[in-house]
Amino acid sequence: MTESFSVLRLRNQIALVTGGSSGIGAGVAKAMAAAGAVVYVNYSHSADEAAAVVKEITDAGGQATAVQADVSKEADVQRMFQQILQEQGTLHILVNNSGIQQDAKFLDMTLEQWQKVIDVNLTGQFLCAREAAREFVRRGPQPDISAATGKIICMSSVHEVIPWAGHVNYATSKGGIMQLMKSMAQELAPHRIRVNSIGPGAIATPINEEARDTPEEEKNLLTLIPYGRIGQPADIGKVAVWLASDEADYITGTTLFVDGGMTLYPGFADNG
Ligand code: NAD
After folding, report:
1. Which residue, 190, 225, 94, is CA-closest to 150?
2. What does the similarity note say (predicted)?
Protein backbone atom coordinates (compact mmCIF):
# COMPACT_ATOMS: atom_id res chain seq x y z
CA MET A 1 0.00 0.00 0.00
CA THR A 2 2.67 2.48 1.08
CA GLU A 3 4.88 1.32 -1.76
CA SER A 4 2.31 1.73 -4.53
CA PHE A 5 1.40 5.16 -3.14
CA SER A 6 5.02 6.25 -3.29
CA VAL A 7 5.56 4.85 -6.80
CA LEU A 8 2.54 6.66 -8.24
CA ARG A 9 2.79 9.83 -6.20
CA LEU A 10 1.23 11.94 -8.96
CA ARG A 11 -1.61 9.60 -9.89
CA ASN A 12 -4.68 11.34 -11.42
CA GLN A 13 -2.82 14.63 -11.75
CA ILE A 14 -2.48 16.64 -14.94
CA ALA A 15 0.96 18.17 -15.45
CA LEU A 16 2.30 20.63 -18.01
CA VAL A 17 6.06 20.74 -18.59
CA THR A 18 7.14 23.67 -20.75
CA GLY A 19 10.12 22.89 -22.96
CA GLY A 20 9.44 19.23 -22.23
CA SER A 21 10.80 18.23 -25.63
CA SER A 22 14.46 18.35 -24.59
CA GLY A 23 17.02 18.08 -21.79
CA ILE A 24 15.79 18.73 -18.26
CA GLY A 25 12.17 19.21 -19.37
CA ALA A 26 12.16 15.80 -21.05
CA GLY A 27 13.65 14.28 -17.87
CA VAL A 28 10.92 15.89 -15.76
CA ALA A 29 8.14 14.86 -18.17
CA LYS A 30 9.29 11.22 -18.12
CA ALA A 31 9.66 11.15 -14.32
CA MET A 32 6.23 12.71 -13.77
CA ALA A 33 4.59 10.28 -16.20
CA ALA A 34 6.30 7.37 -14.41
CA ALA A 35 4.81 8.73 -11.18
CA GLY A 36 1.32 8.48 -12.70
CA ALA A 37 0.70 12.00 -14.00
CA VAL A 38 -0.91 12.73 -17.38
CA VAL A 39 1.82 14.90 -18.90
CA TYR A 40 1.59 17.64 -21.52
CA VAL A 41 4.96 18.02 -23.25
CA ASN A 42 5.22 21.60 -24.49
CA TYR A 43 7.53 22.58 -27.34
CA SER A 44 7.94 25.72 -29.40
CA HIS A 45 9.52 24.52 -32.68
CA SER A 46 10.73 20.95 -32.20
CA ALA A 47 7.59 18.91 -32.88
CA ASP A 48 9.67 15.81 -33.67
CA GLU A 49 11.54 15.95 -30.38
CA ALA A 50 8.30 16.42 -28.45
CA ALA A 51 6.75 13.47 -30.31
CA ALA A 52 9.77 11.31 -29.40
CA VAL A 53 9.38 12.16 -25.69
CA VAL A 54 5.64 11.41 -25.87
CA LYS A 55 6.37 8.09 -27.59
CA GLU A 56 8.93 7.11 -24.97
CA ILE A 57 6.39 7.83 -22.23
CA THR A 58 3.49 6.02 -23.89
CA ASP A 59 5.70 3.04 -24.85
CA ALA A 60 6.50 2.73 -21.14
CA GLY A 61 2.76 2.69 -20.31
CA GLY A 62 2.41 6.36 -19.33
CA GLN A 63 0.13 9.09 -20.63
CA ALA A 64 1.46 12.11 -22.53
CA THR A 65 0.48 14.59 -25.24
CA ALA A 66 2.59 17.13 -27.13
CA VAL A 67 1.38 20.73 -27.14
CA GLN A 68 2.88 23.60 -29.11
CA ALA A 69 3.30 27.13 -27.74
CA ASP A 70 5.97 29.78 -27.65
CA VAL A 71 5.88 30.58 -23.92
CA SER A 72 6.93 34.18 -24.52
CA LYS A 73 3.71 34.86 -26.48
CA GLU A 74 0.57 35.48 -24.46
CA ALA A 75 -1.83 34.24 -27.15
CA ASP A 76 0.16 31.00 -27.57
CA VAL A 77 0.17 30.37 -23.82
CA GLN A 78 -3.57 31.00 -23.53
CA ARG A 79 -4.29 28.68 -26.46
CA MET A 80 -2.13 25.96 -24.87
CA PHE A 81 -3.99 26.20 -21.56
CA GLN A 82 -7.37 26.20 -23.34
CA GLN A 83 -6.41 22.97 -25.11
CA ILE A 84 -5.35 21.28 -21.87
CA LEU A 85 -8.46 22.40 -19.99
CA GLN A 86 -10.72 21.30 -22.84
CA GLU A 87 -9.08 17.88 -22.98
CA GLN A 88 -8.58 17.25 -19.25
CA GLY A 89 -10.92 19.61 -17.42
CA THR A 90 -8.16 21.05 -15.26
CA LEU A 91 -4.43 21.13 -14.44
CA HIS A 92 -2.65 20.28 -11.18
CA ILE A 93 1.05 20.83 -11.85
CA LEU A 94 2.93 23.39 -13.94
CA VAL A 95 6.66 22.97 -14.50
CA ASN A 96 7.93 26.26 -15.90
CA ASN A 97 11.02 24.85 -17.56
CA SER A 98 11.53 26.51 -20.98
CA GLY A 99 14.72 28.51 -21.12
CA ILE A 100 17.40 29.70 -23.50
CA GLN A 101 20.86 31.26 -23.47
CA GLN A 102 22.12 33.94 -25.86
CA ASP A 103 25.59 34.65 -24.61
CA ALA A 104 27.66 37.77 -25.22
CA LYS A 105 30.15 39.91 -23.36
CA PHE A 106 28.34 42.73 -21.61
CA LEU A 107 29.93 45.41 -23.80
CA ASP A 108 28.77 43.58 -26.93
CA MET A 109 25.34 42.39 -25.83
CA THR A 110 22.58 43.60 -28.13
CA LEU A 111 19.15 44.68 -26.95
CA GLU A 112 17.77 41.79 -29.00
CA GLN A 113 19.91 39.24 -27.09
CA TRP A 114 18.90 40.79 -23.77
CA GLN A 115 15.20 40.96 -24.65
CA LYS A 116 14.91 37.48 -26.14
CA VAL A 117 16.29 35.78 -23.04
CA ILE A 118 14.14 37.86 -20.67
CA ASP A 119 11.07 37.19 -22.84
CA VAL A 120 11.44 33.40 -22.87
CA ASN A 121 13.01 32.76 -19.45
CA LEU A 122 11.18 35.30 -17.29
CA THR A 123 8.07 36.58 -19.09
CA GLY A 124 7.37 33.03 -20.28
CA GLN A 125 7.32 31.82 -16.67
CA PHE A 126 5.02 34.72 -15.67
CA LEU A 127 2.55 34.00 -18.48
CA CYS A 128 2.34 30.25 -17.83
CA ALA A 129 2.19 30.63 -14.03
CA ARG A 130 -0.60 33.19 -14.31
CA GLU A 131 -2.73 30.89 -16.47
CA ALA A 132 -2.05 27.92 -14.18
CA ALA A 133 -2.86 29.89 -11.01
CA ARG A 134 -6.08 31.22 -12.55
CA GLU A 135 -7.14 27.63 -13.24
CA PHE A 136 -6.15 26.40 -9.76
CA VAL A 137 -8.20 29.18 -8.12
CA ARG A 138 -11.16 28.60 -10.46
CA ARG A 139 -11.20 24.85 -9.77
CA GLY A 140 -10.53 25.01 -6.03
CA PRO A 141 -9.31 22.19 -3.79
CA GLN A 142 -9.44 18.52 -4.80
CA PRO A 143 -8.11 16.89 -1.60
CA ASP A 144 -8.71 13.39 -2.91
CA ILE A 145 -6.16 14.15 -5.66
CA SER A 146 -3.61 16.35 -3.86
CA ALA A 147 -3.32 18.23 -0.56
CA ALA A 148 -2.44 21.43 -2.44
CA THR A 149 -4.89 23.00 -4.87
CA GLY A 150 -2.07 23.42 -7.37
CA LYS A 151 1.70 23.24 -7.66
CA ILE A 152 4.04 25.44 -9.70
CA ILE A 153 7.70 24.56 -10.11
CA CYS A 154 9.95 27.16 -11.72
CA MET A 155 13.17 25.93 -13.33
CA SER A 156 15.67 28.44 -12.09
CA SER A 157 19.43 27.89 -11.92
CA VAL A 158 22.41 28.23 -9.63
CA HIS A 159 22.66 31.56 -11.49
CA GLU A 160 19.80 32.96 -9.46
CA VAL A 161 22.54 33.45 -6.83
CA ILE A 162 25.86 33.04 -8.71
CA PRO A 163 26.69 36.01 -10.97
CA TRP A 164 27.74 35.01 -14.50
CA ALA A 165 29.97 37.24 -16.60
CA GLY A 166 29.25 36.92 -20.31
CA HIS A 167 25.68 35.85 -19.53
CA VAL A 168 24.09 38.87 -17.83
CA ASN A 169 20.78 38.36 -19.65
CA TYR A 170 20.55 34.75 -18.44
CA ALA A 171 21.66 35.45 -14.85
CA THR A 172 19.23 38.39 -14.66
CA SER A 173 16.37 36.20 -15.88
CA LYS A 174 17.13 33.61 -13.18
CA GLY A 175 17.49 36.26 -10.45
CA GLY A 176 14.11 37.57 -11.60
CA ILE A 177 12.60 34.09 -11.41
CA MET A 178 13.59 33.97 -7.73
CA GLN A 179 11.46 37.02 -6.88
CA LEU A 180 8.70 35.97 -9.28
CA MET A 181 8.54 32.59 -7.52
CA LYS A 182 8.69 33.99 -3.97
CA SER A 183 6.14 36.76 -4.62
CA MET A 184 3.75 34.31 -6.28
CA ALA A 185 4.24 31.88 -3.38
CA GLN A 186 3.37 34.60 -0.87
CA GLU A 187 0.30 35.74 -2.80
CA LEU A 188 -1.02 32.29 -3.68
CA ALA A 189 -0.40 30.40 -0.41
CA PRO A 190 -3.86 31.33 0.97
CA HIS A 191 -5.31 29.49 -2.05
CA ARG A 192 -3.21 26.45 -1.07
CA ILE A 193 -1.10 26.84 -4.20
CA ARG A 194 2.53 25.92 -3.66
CA VAL A 195 5.18 27.69 -5.74
CA ASN A 196 8.83 26.62 -5.62
CA SER A 197 11.93 26.60 -7.79
CA ILE A 198 14.54 24.03 -8.64
CA GLY A 199 18.00 25.49 -9.14
CA PRO A 200 19.99 23.02 -11.26
CA GLY A 201 23.77 23.18 -11.40
CA ALA A 202 25.48 21.75 -14.49
CA ILE A 203 23.16 19.19 -16.07
CA ALA A 204 24.18 17.46 -19.31
CA THR A 205 21.72 18.86 -21.91
CA PRO A 206 21.90 20.61 -25.31
CA ILE A 207 21.95 24.07 -23.62
CA ASN A 208 25.53 23.55 -22.36
CA GLU A 209 26.94 21.09 -24.92
CA GLU A 210 29.59 23.61 -25.92
CA ALA A 211 30.87 23.91 -22.34
CA ARG A 212 31.44 20.13 -22.29
CA ASP A 213 32.87 19.74 -25.80
CA THR A 214 36.41 18.62 -24.95
CA PRO A 215 37.82 16.60 -22.02
CA GLU A 216 39.65 19.80 -20.97
CA GLU A 217 36.37 21.78 -20.82
CA GLU A 218 34.66 18.99 -18.94
CA LYS A 219 37.55 18.90 -16.44
CA ASN A 220 37.24 22.66 -15.92
CA LEU A 221 33.52 22.32 -15.34
CA LEU A 222 34.10 19.57 -12.77
CA THR A 223 36.30 21.91 -10.69
CA LEU A 224 33.07 23.82 -9.99
CA ILE A 225 31.22 20.72 -8.74
CA PRO A 226 32.37 19.43 -5.33
CA TYR A 227 30.33 16.23 -5.74
CA GLY A 228 32.50 15.37 -8.76
CA ARG A 229 30.00 14.58 -11.46
CA ILE A 230 27.89 16.44 -14.00
CA GLY A 231 24.16 16.06 -13.34
CA GLN A 232 21.68 14.26 -15.58
CA PRO A 233 18.09 15.28 -16.46
CA ALA A 234 16.87 12.35 -14.34
CA ASP A 235 18.48 13.96 -11.26
CA ILE A 236 16.12 16.90 -11.74
CA GLY A 237 13.15 14.71 -12.74
CA LYS A 238 13.20 12.82 -9.44
CA VAL A 239 13.33 16.03 -7.41
CA ALA A 240 10.51 17.62 -9.44
CA VAL A 241 8.25 14.61 -8.79
CA TRP A 242 8.94 14.81 -5.06
CA LEU A 243 8.47 18.60 -4.94
CA ALA A 244 5.13 18.29 -6.75
CA SER A 245 3.96 15.44 -4.52
CA ASP A 246 2.17 15.62 -1.18
CA GLU A 247 5.42 14.54 0.48
CA ALA A 248 6.54 18.14 -0.04
CA ASP A 249 3.18 19.64 0.95
CA TYR A 250 4.62 22.06 3.53
CA ILE A 251 7.18 23.52 1.12
CA THR A 252 6.41 26.77 -0.65
CA GLY A 253 8.53 29.78 -1.66
CA THR A 254 11.80 27.85 -1.69
CA THR A 255 14.53 27.20 -4.23
CA LEU A 256 15.90 23.70 -4.00
CA PHE A 257 19.41 23.68 -5.47
CA VAL A 258 20.20 20.40 -7.21
CA ASP A 259 23.78 21.13 -8.09
CA GLY A 260 26.30 18.68 -6.60
CA GLY A 261 27.43 21.52 -4.35
CA MET A 262 28.07 24.15 -7.04
CA THR A 263 26.59 26.84 -4.77
CA LEU A 264 29.09 25.97 -2.00
CA TYR A 265 31.78 28.34 -3.36
CA PRO A 266 34.14 25.44 -4.27
CA GLY A 267 36.94 27.96 -4.94
CA PHE A 268 37.12 28.42 -1.16
CA ALA A 269 37.57 24.69 -0.42
CA ASP A 270 41.30 25.21 0.20
CA ASN A 271 40.79 28.42 2.18
CA GLY A 272 40.58 30.56 -0.97
P1 NAD B 1 17.45 22.56 -23.49
O2 NAD B 1 17.96 23.51 -24.50
O3 NAD B 1 17.64 21.11 -23.69
O4 NAD B 1 15.90 22.81 -23.20
C5 NAD B 1 15.28 24.06 -23.29
C6 NAD B 1 13.84 23.83 -23.66
O7 NAD B 1 13.17 25.10 -23.74
C8 NAD B 1 13.68 23.16 -25.01
O9 NAD B 1 12.72 22.13 -24.90
C10 NAD B 1 13.17 24.27 -25.91
O11 NAD B 1 12.34 23.79 -26.94
C12 NAD B 1 12.38 25.08 -24.91
N13 NAD B 1 12.13 26.45 -25.39
C14 NAD B 1 13.03 27.35 -25.84
N15 NAD B 1 12.40 28.48 -26.22
C16 NAD B 1 11.07 28.27 -26.00
C17 NAD B 1 9.92 29.05 -26.20
N18 NAD B 1 9.98 30.29 -26.70
N19 NAD B 1 8.72 28.51 -25.89
C20 NAD B 1 8.62 27.25 -25.39
N21 NAD B 1 9.69 26.48 -25.18
C22 NAD B 1 10.90 26.98 -25.49
O23 NAD B 1 18.14 23.01 -22.12
P24 NAD B 1 17.93 22.51 -20.62
O25 NAD B 1 19.25 22.50 -20.01
O26 NAD B 1 17.10 21.29 -20.56
O27 NAD B 1 17.14 23.75 -20.00
C28 NAD B 1 15.89 23.63 -19.34
C29 NAD B 1 15.81 24.66 -18.22
O30 NAD B 1 16.78 24.34 -17.23
C31 NAD B 1 16.10 26.10 -18.67
O32 NAD B 1 15.23 26.98 -18.00
C33 NAD B 1 17.53 26.30 -18.20
O34 NAD B 1 17.81 27.66 -17.96
C35 NAD B 1 17.52 25.50 -16.92
N36 NAD B 1 18.85 25.13 -16.43
C37 NAD B 1 19.64 24.26 -17.12
C38 NAD B 1 20.89 23.94 -16.61
C39 NAD B 1 21.81 22.96 -17.28
O40 NAD B 1 22.96 22.80 -16.82
N41 NAD B 1 21.39 22.27 -18.33
C42 NAD B 1 21.32 24.50 -15.41
C43 NAD B 1 20.49 25.40 -14.76
C44 NAD B 1 19.25 25.69 -15.27
Report:
1. 94
2. Belongs to the short-chain dehydrogenases/reductases (SDR) family.
